[in-house]
Design goal:
Largest sheet: 4 strands, mixed
Number of domains: 3
Distance between the termini: 21 Å
Strand order of the largest sheet: 1-2-4-3
CATH topology of the largest domain: Zincin-like
Shape: elongated
């Protein structure tokens, strides 16, 4: 598989032959798909591929990157992350492993990682792999913050904390008092993480989203509306890569 580097994205390029007289290009969730007419000579084929890739690149640079969340950053690039106020640097390299389904993460220094990715890995897979790496490092710190907030505000019986990568919701609270949080909140400013925590802690007392529930949350966090607005505006960008 080949790749086309467009800005900070590494877009997969798949090339196949078609019985049609006309060659085609499409930008899909899996990357750029070329269908090259089998009736072209070698030189015509090379020229057609170059022209189609130029069109695809220009289209992507003009902002039509609907599937960008599926595409990894270029290899030999760096990612800067801030996790709970701590800066991290990730260097992305092509994988040297023969295991095509495995991402390798090595700690070069206290806050510097080497990330080796297989060619067919997509952005979602890398996000989940990095989340799995960082969760054990920050779990105890997140658990301590949650306990402190519970002791300060709700003082309700608290079950366990489940920290995992999610895209559908930021947090939840079970009937047993177990609280689940998205690991993507590790990338948010601390007041945003605490706002989600308080929201879930209030569910230990009030199970629904009634008027009493929202009044209770605002009683603890008068600025909750601003924090919810921040999460609505910037939450989609909270990703590990």
């Amino acid at each position: 598989m080949d790749f086309l580097i467009v800005d900070r994205y590494r877009v997969p390029v798949r090339n196949s032959r078609t019985n049609q007289q006309r060659s085609q290009v499409a930008i899909t969730r899996s990357g750029i798909r070329l269908r090259i007419s089998k009736y072209l000579s070698k030189s015509q084929k090379e020229e057609t591929i170059n022209n189609l890739l130029r069109w695809a690149e220009q289209t992507l640079r003009n902002g039509d990157i609907a599937y960008a969340e599926q595409w990894l950053p270029p290899t030999n690039s760096e990612i800067q992350l801030t996790i709970l106020g701590t800066p991290w640097k990730l260097t992305v390299l092509p994988s040297l492993s023969t295991d095509k389904a495995r991402i390798s993460i090595f700690r070069q220094s206290s806050q510097t990682l080497i990330v080796q990715i297989p060619a067919q890995f997509n952005r979602n897979q890398m996000n989940r792999a990095l989340s799995s790496y960082f969760i054990p490092i920050f779990y105890d710190q997140v658990w301590q913050i949650l306990q402190n907030l519970n002791n300060r505000f709700t003082k309700a019986p608290l079950g366990n904390l489940n920290l995992r990568y999610t895209t559908s919701r930021w947090g939840s609270c079970s009937s047993l008092g177990n609280i689940s949080l998205s690991s993507r909140l590790l990338l948010a400013p601390l007041p945003i993480l605490e706002a989600v925590m308080v929201h879930e802690l209030v569910h230990l007392e009030i199970k629904n989203h009634s008027l009493d529930f929202h009044k209770r949350v605002e009683e603890f966090l008068p600025e909750i509306k601003q924090q919810e607005h921040w999460l609505q505006m910037h939450g989609p960008n909270l990703n590990f890569c």
